[in-house]
């Protein structure tokens, strides 16, 4: 069966280094490899996921465009990959409802992201935040995804998608949904906050110093790395010796991911160095990687009408691609759509 890559990102705030190294860089690589092998890619802005917590409508609208521009600047090519926003393809919300009736409450109760995001006020969280992983399952099952490139934090949601697909196929005696495989990068599966090695780098962290944004300029990147939390010990010569040093592990991990190396490779060169030496070099590597993306992004931001046109064209393609699977799901359930 042909390779089909599907993945999404929430259009909230800036694209940051965690998104880039954990997911987007893999999207771009897979886009090239997949096209060469006769497969295809679907990448989308998960705006329906963004509204599971309150989002200012004007900001959300602007963020969809800004995130689309950031993805294109990072290398997503709308001529080769289908790039669109989820709300423009109603089949996502429709299939999510059908799958809500297959997913079990017990399965959703195990989702760690819901527990984190709802915090202590679980009763006050939206039903959407709770059912969020079912929409995510619909996102990938709708297109018959074979592979889903994501960071480590989405692994549990992907496992749920596989459970929902299996139960649906079994309950309704069909071979409809394909089971998607996650693709998680080894060195960059979980990029951590620059201020706290125990928390992942995230758009929702109130401190901008906790993350590198793809739009940060050279001086900002240098300052954020200089101020990044570390410890006074020099770098060790084995990866195991970084256990218990989460901030040090994170900076070495970022360096490794930037150069497509393992943590052990980086330590083989830099063991014995203190962070006074290591940090400026890391900042330089970051700037090298991010500067061209920032420059392309500034260019794209000048032409919002073109971005809208690209997203509209992507949505039209996605609607066509989604139609057969949605029809198959209605049919399997015995639901008539005759008008
Ligand atoms: P989101 O928008 O939080 O993140 C987008 C992608 O970036 C990865 N990521 C990270 N990787 C490594 N280190 C980090 N600190 C880090 N932070 C984020 C995420 O794992 C993700 O791959 N629910 C999803 C969006 C979504 C989706 C989907 C993804 C909706 N439907 C279907 C895949 C398939 C989310 O909120 O990602």
From TrEMBL:
It catalyses: tRNA(Trp) + L-tryptophan + ATP = L-tryptophyl-tRNA(Trp) + AMP + diphosphate + H(+). It comes from the Bacteria. InterPro entries: aa-tRNA-synth_I_CS (IPR001412), aa-tRNA-synth_Ic (IPR002305), Rossmann-like_a/b/a_fold (IPR014729), Trp-tRNA-ligase (IPR002306), Trp-tRNA-ligase_bac-type (IPR024109), Trp-tRNA_synthetase (IPR050203). L-tryptophan binds at residue 139. Keywords: Aminoacyl-tRNA synthetase, ATP-binding, Cytoplasm, Ligase, Nucleotide-binding, Protein biosynthesis. Catalyzes the attachment of tryptophan to tRNA(Trp). This is Tryptophan--tRNA ligase.
